[in-house]
Amino acid sequence: MTTSAEDRTLVLLRHASAESAAAGQDDRERSLTDAGREEARDVGRWLVEQGIGCDEVMCSPAQRTRETMAEIAAAGCAEAEVEIEHRLYNAGADDILAVVREASEDANVVLVVGHAPGLPTAASLLADGDGSAPAHDLLAEGFPPGAVAVLRYCGPWSDLAFDAATLERFHLPVLTP
């Protein structure tokens, strides 16, 4: 398959499972659980298996999102420098779209690590039913911690709009027993 310079891949990743907030703890300081670390490593291995490396990474400043990205990198997923993007913390779909529109035009693969409900909503609105039926079926069942949506888009990032992408794959992390 040939690709043009404007064939893009957008990877939307919800942070892996995190601890419950302790009394008085800032939500941004919640860390991953042991299971969450394993979920994130599974996602990293899956991205490698899919041949998806990241040209640009935009990550919420929350501890759990940063730890998720660290585990993905430790699992072998090639990554660009992680850009901490404060607008992604508990962002809505419109905010996520605005952040992605600012991606470098040199980046063909952009990974966004964020939170629900904004990230799942953005995935649904970007693809709006287009793409892989099995991926859409999984997306419709929910977007649990560690879930990842892979969308294709053709054009400059600055022109990305809802209903302009195709949902190609959807992955749920698999924990080893």
Please tag this protein with its features.
His_Pase_superF_clade-1, alpha/beta, His_PPase_superfam, 177 residues, 31% helix, Rossmann fold
In short:
The chain is 31% helix and 19% strand. A six-stranded mixed β-sheet has the order 3-2-4-1-5-6, sandwiched between helices.
Oligomer: single chain
Share of residues in strands? 15-25%
CATH architecture: 3-Layer(aba) Sandwich
Which CATH class is shown? Alpha Beta
Question: What is the molecular shape?
Answer: globular
- SS elements, strand count: 6
Element-by-element helix/strand order: EHEHEHEHHEE
The name CATH uses for the topology is: Rossmann fold
Residue runs with pLDDT of under 50 for 5 or more positions: none
Mean pLDDT score, rounded?
93
Report helical residue fraction.
25-40%
Euclidean distance between termini CA atoms: 38 Å
Sheet with the most strands?
A: 6 strands, mixed
Number of domains: 1
Q: CATH-wise, what's the superfamily?
A: Phosphoglycerate mutase-like
SS-based structural class? alpha/beta
Strand order of the largest sheet: 3-2-4-1-5-6
- With helices defined by DSSP (H or I, 4 residues minimum), what is the helix count? 5
